[in-house]
Amino acid sequence: MPLLKLLFLGTGGAVPRADRRMPGIYLEDWEGHRVLLDAGEGVQYALMANGISPASLSYVAITHGHEDHVLGLPGLLSTAKMAGKSLKVLAPPRLASALSRGGVEAATSASDRHMSIRCVEVCHTVEACGWLFEWDVGFKLDLSKVEGFPKQALTKLIRGEAVEVGGRVVRPEDVAEPGHRRWRRLFYTGDTGPCPKALEAVGWTDVLIHEATFADDVEPAKAHEEGHSTVLDAIEAAKALGARLLILTHISARYDDLGRHRALAASYRHAVVPEDGDWVLVRF
């Protein structure tokens, strides 16, 4: 079963706390891709404290240009360069263009070995991308329907290719196990207020990592005016996307602990509010 590893390096917002760093999430999939989501100040030290070399990253995906999400990027680029590697940076269009002019390898999407990453515009105070990950895990075949098929035909069917067997064309959908889904998805919002256009663009996801800057002690209209969300906003987004797992992050420094967020998140079927240094493992 595919295993996705998430390490929450920094779960805070714009103002740091001694116990809550600036935003940064490390993602490692079963194909060996290593992606850093946002690069808050000091993120490379958090990576190294967990035995992860900055130079080993496949991509750094920046949601937007606010300082709490990018101040760690120069250090990462410098460290990787000294190791003889050029980091690939994903960013919103204008930021990607600016980085490219500065000699950084930057783009707005990526595709590599059964995984794709693309920008979905979210609703913040500046140009901002949520990052939608999609993995092609192939088809799980109903063995009773493919008995006697050549091995080569089985391999193609799993990969999503139609084959000819015994003079007839067999499509993967015809012999897949009932209810099996070929794709797995994760959507990371970065900073955003409630954003119907983003939800429409994403459609559905297995895992939703949603910002929850505020709990329920701030007027929703005030949070939205600042381009941020409450816990209840994040829950509504998870319901709309049918997320199996909701993960809340980007917690304001006004909260001394996560108790209030966790109490509110408990109303969702499966929600997690991690602290800095927590790993979340997802079995797809």
Description:
By secondary structure, the protein is an alpha/beta fold. It has 2 domains: 3-137 and 182-283, Metallo-beta-lactamase, Chain A, CATH 3.60.15; 138-179, no CATH class. The chain has helices at 43-49, 67-70, 73-82, 93-101, 151-158, 172-175, 196-202, 220-225, 231-241, 259-265; strands spanning 3-10, 24-28, 34-37, 59-61, 88-90, 105-107, 109-112, 115-121, 129-136, 163-165, 168-170, 183-188, 207-211, 245-249, 271-272, 279-283. It has a 7-stranded mixed β-sheet. A 7-stranded mixed β-sheet has the order 7-8-9-12-13-14-15. Strands 10-11 form a two-stranded antiparallel ribbon. The longest helix is centred in the last third of the chain and has 11 residues, at 231-241.
Descriptors:
single chain, 284 residues, alpha/beta, 2 domains, 7-stranded mixed beta sheet, 10 helices, 16 strands
In short:
26% of the residues lie in helices and 26% in strands.
Topology:
Blueprint: E1 3-10, E2 24-28, E3 34-37, H1 43-49, E4 59-61, H2 67-70, H3 73-82, E5 88-90, H4 93-101, E6 105-107, E7 109-112, E8 115-121, E9 129-136, H5 151-158, E10 163-165, E11 168-170, H6 172-175, E12 183-188, H7 196-202, E13 207-211, H8 220-225, H9 231-241, E14 245-249, H10 259-265, E15 271-272, E16 279-283
Parallel strand pairs: 3-4, 4-5, 5-6, 12-13, 13-14, 14-15
Antiparallel strand pairs: 1-2, 1-16, 2-3, 7-8, 8-9, 9-12, 10-11
